[in-house]
Design a protein that fits this description.
The complex is a heterodimer. Chain A is of the alpha/beta class. Helices cover 38% and strands 16% of the residues of chain A. Chain B has 10 helices and 13 strands. Classes of the chains: A alpha/beta, B alpha+beta.
């Protein structure tokens, strides 16, 4: 298949893998964080770690939009969905995220109508088709999905649709990266930068990472060769003693980002003073809310909400996993009390979550499998 | 005319039917003997009442299409002679939405699904039953189309519909039409097939490109605004399974890859036989349209349902024979050996990715595509 297979070429991967290995200084350990959950998913789905030497370790970052939603926000969404004549919509990943009293599926079994959509525009379409129902879109995601929410609100306003609102949970990536850089318990050698977010915000916002924290950043695409090449570029920077922001994903990411998308966000939304991130706690100026001008489309204004902060379950170590301090399997409840069927923490919910990716794709002893397959081929 | 004259005229008519009256009575009698016809355009609750409307529906729609000596007496059960030996019995219900989709409809799906369950058990399918749950208001024309597709699929598979049932539920209590089919078949050999008999060294085959049914249904629902010329792969597998059993003594187990797709079946095998299954992603036949749609939807074709694809586990040394047999049948032209059975790690399915890495291929947690069959 064109535009896909080229980026999954095993021969090119072997060649890159050899180049990466040749740059490793014996005895030194390298730790790179892939910020974006999409990268985590690719790494596990394609078995990319098989191409990395043992002294390069990938740490999974906070860039999974579902994983960072705190329980209280799920409870708020269910509260809105329980109001009469309300239909709640969200992305499929949200359906299994546990609130304090269950997830959206549980809530639907008790009578709410929470539906999965592929785009906020689908949500608006449902509103148009059901004028007697108030349709709420639970918006989640980083800058990748924020513009589509903003554009949908602008369209709803232009069409004068009155039975549609957005429960805004959009977050921004830079404050989260900063929180991780300031976290004392983590030593990283560089970042695989989020590709989709960068299509919107560009590469400039990462410059402080290279300048102030002296860590290299390579903004990366989502195919396995993209990621492997980004790791190679990070290794090259370390070998040359450079700290720069490089753009591996230049086929999609403009250095300046997408000004039209940024303008749409700026028109409809503004930064919240602070927002709670699951596992990371409150981070200032790290999320978006609707501007006063669009309050008619702001579910937080249209409905009254409990807004109760719910502490994460004690056993859950999602925070440490999100910061990359713990590998998924190092969490006390990983794979036993917390599984994709019955997730305790959000990292186990979304296919982009580090725990779910590791559980679904990587949960085996690589050495044993290699030995077994070598044995079979003798 | 005086009153007395009128009375007398009426009496005369009662005592001796006039020619005109007799003509009317004859017409009624003829009409009652005439082939029944459903005059309503939609199914009503009276079609499920067991009375005349039910009778008309059964005779005009079902019996007329399915007509065969076992069904025709319309007794409570169909009875037929059996030879000594083993039989296979299965049942399946069909709730697919939408009812009609490129490549088929709920009708042929209901026949092929049940025929395939018998076929992969190693049985020759003989007879099917068909039970319909219809929603009040369902168009008779659509019901007729479904029934005709059942007839056509049954003819293709060489089976008969020998018993049936119809229920009608109020509007809103069902989604148009649900069908249950049960099937019986005979096992004309004494081989023990079963996923627990799978051993390290065996080969894993599929009979053709995977995932076409599931993706077709998904795209037909129109939620994604993607257009392709994909069609459901719904088809009866009984000829293919019979040919395979004839030609390859080392067939261990066969399955039709429906809900959960090939990956789910392989997980069942790994667990039942306590073996490992390794699949080579590069070897799995997948049409480009299916791959493309799966990429967009973020799903893996290995988990997407087929309705006419066989997964067979055969003795590794007979893999080439099995492949040649499958490929010699029109439904198996693109058959492939996609992997092998190993010992370690037991109970797990591993995927060698096209990229060259290795990962787990576990059971799915949720259904990515509800109501596809």
């Amino acid at each position: 298949m064109r535009f896909v297979d080229e980026f999954r070429d095993a021969d090119k991967a072997r060649a890159l893998s050899a180049k990466i290995t040749s740059l490793c200084i014996p005895g030194r350990h390298y730790k790179f964080m892939e910020v974006c959950g999409g990268h985590t998913h690719t790494i596990y789905k394609h078995g990319l770690e098989d191409y990395l030497p043992e002294n390069i370790q990938l740490v999974h970052g906070p860039g999974c939009p579902v994983c960072v939603i705190p329980m209280g926000r799920v409870d708020d969404a269910i509260h809105i969905a329980r109001q009469p004549d309300v239909l709640m919509t969200s992305f499929g990943d949200m359906m299994r995220v546990p609130g304090s009293g269950g997830n959206f599926f549980d809530s639907n079994a008790e009578g709410t109508n929470i539906r999965m959509v592929y785009s906020p525009l689908d949500s608006l379409k449902i509103a148009r088709q059901n004028p007697d129902t108030h349709v709420v879109f639970m918006a989640i995601g980083f800058e990748t999905t924020t513009p589509s929410t903003a554009m949908t609100v602008l369209r709803a306003a232009a069409e004068g649709i009155e039975n549609f609102s957005v429960f805004c949970n959009h977050v921004t990536i830079i404050p989260a990266i900063k929180a991780i850089l300031d976290s004392p318990d983590l030593r990283l050698d560089g970042f695989i930068g989020p590709g989709h977010v960068s299509t919107v915000i560009g590469c400039r916002p990462y410059e402080f990472i290279a300048r102030d924290y002296e860590k290299p950043v390579v903004v990366s695409g989502f195919e396995p060769l993209d990621i492997l090449q980004s790791i190679y570029q990070l290794m090259l920077q370390l070998a040359d003693d450079r700290c720069e922001v490089e753009n591996q994903y230049s086929r999609v990411v403009p250095w300046q980002g997408n000004p039209i998308a940024l303008n749409a966000i700026g028109e409809v939304m503004e930064l919240r003073p602070y927002f709670e991130w699951r596992g990371l706690g409150f981070i200032s100026h790290s999320a978006m809310r609707m501007k006063e001008k669009y309050s008619a489309f702001d579910a937080e204004q249209v409905f009254s909400m409990p807004g109760v902060r719910v502490a994460d379950p004690k056993a859950c170590q999602c925070g440490e996993v999100l910061k990359g301090v713990l590998k998924p399997w190092e969490c006390k409840v990983f794979g036993t009390a917390c599984t994709p069927e019955t997730p305790i923490g959000t990292c186990m919910v979304s296919p982009e979550g580090a725990c779910a990716a590791y559980y679904n794709f990587g949960r085996f002893n690589r050495t044993r499998v290699k030995e077994a397959s070598a044995h079979e081929h003798v | 005319m005086s009153t007395s004259e009128r009375v007398s005229a009426r009496r005369t008519r009662t005592d001796q039917p006039s020619d005109r009256e007799q003509q009317v009575l004859d017409r009624i009698d003829k009409a009652r003997r005439r082939k029944p016809k459903v005059r309503e355009e939609r199914v009503t609750l009276s079609h499920g009442s067991g009375g005349k409307a039910t009778q008309t529906l059964i005779e005009a729609v079902f019996l007329d299409t399915f007509r065969n000596p076992l069904l025709e007496p319309l007794e409570d059960s169909a009875s037929f002679p059996v030879d000594a030996g083993r039989m296979a019995l299965t049942t399946d219900s069909y709730v697919v939405s939408p009812l009609f989709f490129p490549g088929g409809c709920i009708g042929d799906l209901a026949v092929n699904g049940t025929v395939n369950d018998l076929a992969v058990a190693g049985a020759r399918p003989l007879h099917l039953t068909a039970g319909f749950i219809l929603e009040e208001g369902f168009p008779i024309a659509e019901l007729t189309r479904i029934v005709e597709s059942i007839k056509a699929a049954a003819d293709t598979a060489g089976v008969q519909i020998v018993a049936g049932d119809t229920k009608v539920v109020q509007r809103g209590k069902a989604d148009g039409c649900y069908i249950n089919t049960a099937g019986v078949g005979v096992l004309e050999h004494s081989r023990e097939l079963g996923i627990a008999t799978v051993k390290p060294g065996d080969a894993v085959l599929v009979s053709g490109p995977i995932g076409e049914h599931g993706i077709t249904i998904m795209l037909t629902r129109g939620e994604l605004d993607i257009e392709t010329d994909l069609e459901s792969d719904t088809a009866p597998l009984n000829e293919l399974t019979a040919a395979l059993l004839d030609a390859v003594p080392g067939v261990r187990a066969m399955r039709d890859a429906t809900r959960g797709g090939v990956a789910t079946i392989l997980n069942e095998i790994a667990r039942a036989a306590n073996v490992s299954v390794t699949v080579d992603e590069n070897a799995v036949p997948v049409r480009t349209e299916v791959r493309g749609a799966s990429e967009l939807l973020g799903i893996d074709p290995l988990y997407v349902a087929c309705e006419g694809r066989l997964v067979a586990i055969v003795d590794g040394e007979q893999a080439e024979d099995a492949l040649a047999t499958l490929r010699s049948h029109p439904l198996g032209q693109q058959a492939a050996v996609i992997g092998h059975i190993g010992a370690d790690p037991p109970g797990m399915v591993m995927l060698k990715t096209a990229f060259g890495g290795t990962r787990i291929m576990d059971l799915l947690v949720g259904d990515p595509l509800p109501r596809i069959c």
